[in-house]
Amino acid sequence: MHPMVTTSPQSRKSVSTLPNFTDLYAVDELLGDDERLIRDTVRAFVRKRALPVIDEHFEAGTFPHELVDGIAQLGLLGMHLDGYGCAGASALAYGVACEELEAGDSGLRSFVSVQGSLAMFPIWAYGSEEQKQRYLPEMAAGRMIGCFGLTESDAGSDPASMQTRAHLDGDDWIISGSKMWITNGSIADVAVVWARTESGIRGFLIDKGTPGFTASDVHRKLSLRASVTSELHLDSVRVSAGQMLPEAQGLRAPLSCLNEARYGISWGALGAARACFESAVEYSKTRLVFGKPLAGYQLTQLKLAEMATRLVQGRLVTWRLSQLKDAGQAHPVQVSLAKRANVRLALDIAREARTILGANGITLEYPVIRHMTNLESVLTYEGTEEVHTLILGKAITGEDAFG
Q1: 258-291 burial string, b = 16+ CB within 10 Å, else e?
Q2: Which run of H or of E encompasses 336?
Q3: Confidence of residue 19 (pLDDT cuts 50, 70, 90)
Q4: Across the strands, what pairs with 166?
Q5: What local confidence, expressed as pLDDT, does residue 16 receive?
Q6: Nearest to 88 by CA among 97, 96, 79
Q7: Is 278 a catalytic residue?
Q8: CA separation for the pair 180, 309 (Å, rounded)
């Protein structure tokens, strides 16, 4: 017979208080003091400065420029990079900040992601010391805005098919082509543009105002309306050899930048999901249907229980991914899994929350429809759901199904 398993008085203690309904597995308790401070500071900024204006900007289709200085003063621009005026924060801290920003609006998190992970990171990782000194301190302070020019209208999920070309002319590079769906494009002071050369794909830093380089905004968007989305036009743009990123060669370089941004998205999507969930819970408690709160009906509780469960699953995934990233052990496949899973669960939560709010759910009196439409873009950018599915499929089976 096996001996009877006994438990200590410590393990038999009952839980006296229920965790917050948005964090039922108490993942917040796994954060360190620095991460909690960042969480609370960014959350307060979003509630005080962003939420009062974001609906108006979303409705008008304008970017909240007035928030940029505050975001920079919090040290959020390039916060996960070391040196050159950057905060040198942990991956976990960066993730927590992304969650709080996107609880405000996906456009806020997109702005910070593009600035830090897509514009500053390639300079930090692949640039010359002169380039780092010139650009990074200004970008960290928010005095210089950047964008990332990889995607083309006919080369989105297949960046290897890009048509933008660069060739040498003496000591200068001549770049021609166009880039599409570029966040921050028309407000950027510098664009990180990727082009095909005789020696492979290379990255170039193109300053605003360079002859032949222009940007035009994409209008009539019904998603990410509080974010700038542009097309970049390069008509025989001439830049010096010193504007090429010397250590970036081949697709590996821009894909590593995307990997940084995808990590932030996996956290940010949870912020949008949490905001929708909180709105649905609050509404269900106050909305009376047939004489009692909507929250008192089984179908409503089923929806809320599913939302809470998915939030827990997503938060545990990102927390573990943060551990791996801070230890230098995160694999791109793990980032793909987190981006794919968390954006999908966030979109599902937003759509379910909308049903709880009924007709009120389609108005900007509540944040749900704004988050829901934003997440339709988040599902697509930085690798579509289908692309991340194939990345996972290849990792699992060893078979490449992209072709």
Answers
A1: bbbbbbbbbbbbbbbbbbbbbbbbebbeeeeeee
A2: helix 332-357
A3: confident
A4: 175
A5: 63
A6: 79
A7: no
A8: 37
Find the largest Cα–Cα distance for the chain: 86
**What are the two backbone dihedrals, phi and then psi, of residue 83, each rounded to the nearest 5 degrees?**
75, 175
Which residue in 382, 385, 386, 399 is the catalytic one? Answer: 382
Residue 96: CB partners within 8 Å, gap ≥ 6? 31, 35, 38, 39, 42, 267
105 C-beta neighbours (distance < 10 Å), count: 31
Domain map (residue ranges) of the chain = 27-140, 146-250, 253-397
Spatial CA neighbour of 203 closest among 259, 159, 139, 169 = 159
Cα separation, 174 vs 212, in Å, equals 10
Helices (H) and strands (E) in the chain, counts: 12, 12
For residue 65, the surrounding DSSP H or E stretch is none
Structural contact between residues 232 and 213, judged by C-beta atoms closer than 8 angstroms: yes
How confident is the model over 97-129, as pLDDT tens digits? 999 999 999 999 999 999 999 999 999 999 999
User: Residue 26 burial (CB < 10 Å; 0-12/13-18/19+)?
Assistant: exposed
Q: Is 108 helix (H, G, I), strand (E, B) or coil?
A: helix
Fold of 253-397: Butyryl-CoA Dehydrogenase, subunit A; domain 3 (1.20.140)
Q: Which CATH superfamily is domain 27-140 in?
A: Acyl-CoA dehydrogenase/oxidase, N-terminal domain (1.10.540.10)
Residue 226 clears pLDDT 80, i.e. is over it? yes
- The number of beta carbons lying within 10 Å of the beta carbon of residue 323 is 15
Q: Cα separation of 33 and 44, whole Å? A: 16
Architecture (CATH level 2) of domain 146-250: Beta Barrel (2.40)
Position 403 scores a pLDDT of 76
Residues 337-374 have pLDDT tens digits of 999 999 999 999 999 999 999 999 999 999 999 999 99
The answer to whether 294 and 360 are in contact (CB under 8 A) is: no
Q: How far apart are CA 365 and CA 135, in angstroms?
A: 40
CB 248 within 8 A of CB 126: yes
Closest CA to 90 of 82, 272, 40, 71: 82
Other residues' Cβ atoms within 10 Å of the Cβ of residue 157: 13
